[in-house]
TrEMBL record:
Keywords: Metal-binding, Zinc. Its cofactor is Zn(2+). The keyword Zinc applies. InterPro entries: NAD(P)-bd_dom_sf (IPR036291). The keyword Protein transport does not apply. This is Zinc-binding dehydrogenase. It comes from the Bacteria. Signal peptide: none annotated. GO terms for molecular function: metal ion binding.
Length: 144
């Protein structure tokens, strides 16, 4: 099987084996350091993609919670491409009022983002599963 990738100047022919090898390196099936994949195992990959995609002298924003051990940010690429980086946790207080208005108007349906429903009696177990980042525990609703 042959694939053609067009770069605008000419074309490069890649065979399926080359493509599969590149895919395996870029997106391995499992954790290459042993053990299972965990949530947050690939933030450095997202950072490399972001610094590679943005224009020179552009900006990259990082929102999230990163533990003290996260130290694999592509600093060399960032400096060499003269990028501006802004980072921090989400400013929930700023966005909640506007989001609530949009939900009330029907512009946004938050049910699309809810992955679990938990009963109040099982709240401790639900929080433990969410805290462990078990599969499917992204946003949880607890009826009161």
């Amino acid at each position: 099987m042959k694939a053609i990738v067009w770069h605008g100047v000419g074309d490069i022919r890649l065979d399926a084996e080359t493509f599969e090898e590149e895919r395996r390196v870029a997106a391995p099936e499992g954790n290459t350091e042993g053990g299972p994949w965990l949530v947050g195992d690939a933030p450095s990959l997202a950072a490399r993609w972001a610094t590679g995609m943005v224009a020179k002298a552009g900006s990259v924003g990082i929102i999230g919670v990163y533990p003290p051990g996260f130290d694999r940010y592509p600093l060399g690429v960032t400096v060499n491409r003269n990028l501006t980086v802004q980072a921090g946790n989400c400013n929930h207080h700023r966005y909640i009022p506007g989001l609530l208005q949009r939900v009330a108007r029907g512009d946004i349906d938050p049910r699309r983002f809810i992955t679990r429903h938990a009963e109040p009696l099982s709240m401790v177990d639900a929080y433990a599963a969410f805290d462990r980042r078990d599969d499917g525990w992204l946003k949880t609703v607890v009826p009161m």
